Amino acid sequence: MHFISLNNETEVESSAGLHFSKLTPFHEFKLSKDDYVFIPGLTYELLSNTEFLRECTPFLNWLNIQFKNEANICSVCTGTFLLAEAGILNGKSCTTHWRFFTKFIEKYPEIALKKNRLFVHDASLYSSAGVCSGIDLALYILESQFDAKLAADVAKEVVIYFRRSESDPQLSIFLQYRNHLDTRIHDAQDYLMKHISDRFKMENVAEKVHMSVRNLTRLFKKTTGITLGHYLEKLRVEKAVDLLSDKHKVEFVAHQCGLKSANQLRTLLKKHKDILPTDISSLK
To answer: 148 and 37 share a domain?
Structure first.
């Protein structure tokens, strides 16, 4: 393993204040199909700085050459922007951190950005959404290059109790639809999460936030972009998937999700994920 620099510097300090030493200039390496290079995330201030990108031109040209030599190029978080700048993502799929989706699409409209993915593997290109999903990507690479047992042993050694797959979403439903400032709607969302196993009554939620059912229904949709009922269904689906992944019985899961029967749970999973409870174990 080698740590390389973008220039001839042998020591650098990261934006987080971490010091790296004994770096090797990138141009000293010629990679092949058995090699992997990881590009870490950078601040968007740097990525939008034309002078910085101009200084990176020799490195980006080198990266393009390594890609043509079939080396495996991997990015973490906003590192995907550098892959795009190098021109190696043209005609390929990738992902990046959810906070920068809009900026990435505006800057590179010709690149197929996969929004709701933890990581994307396209030929010899790998991109991950963030630091933690970068770990998921590393485990994925270990499994594909060696075997599942080695990947599982490594995950166990570094105390990763739950491996996520390429298709898992970046943001849990428990974190989505929260980018607003209305405390009443936040209270309603908190109530739904806390009482997800209860039989749902709109009147109970409205009473909790001191609103009429009509006003709550209208304001929830206006504030979050989805209806309260749809939001509750998404909460139930995610909780159901988690419980089914832990091998709980379907009837128990249905009850924990506030549903009347196992059939109701099957209908909900089919509607939102096009799967049945028996399929869940294959997702994790």
So the answer is: yes
| 36-39/72-76 β-pairing | parallel
**Residue 284, pLDDT score:** 47
The CATH number that applies at residue 96 is: 3.40.50.880
Q: What is the CATH number of the domain that holds 233?
A: 1.10.10.60
Paired tokens of 152:
């599982």
Q: Name every residue whose Cβ is closer than 8 Å to that of residue 248 and which is 6 or more positions away in sequence.
A: 256
Burial 257-271 (b: 16+ CB within 10 A, else e): bbbeebeebbebbee
- The residue ranking higher by pLDDT, 94 or 164, is 94
Residue 144 confidence (pLDDT): 87
> What is the percent of the chain where pLDDT is above 70?
93
35, part of any domain: yes
* Residue 130 and residue 93 share a domain: yes
166 pLDDT band, cuts 50/70/90, is low
Residue 171: per-residue pLDDT: 60
- Residue of 165, 152, 197, 191 whose CA lies nearest to 281: 165
Q: Does 237 lie in the same domain as 198?
A: yes
Tokens of 38: 């990881």
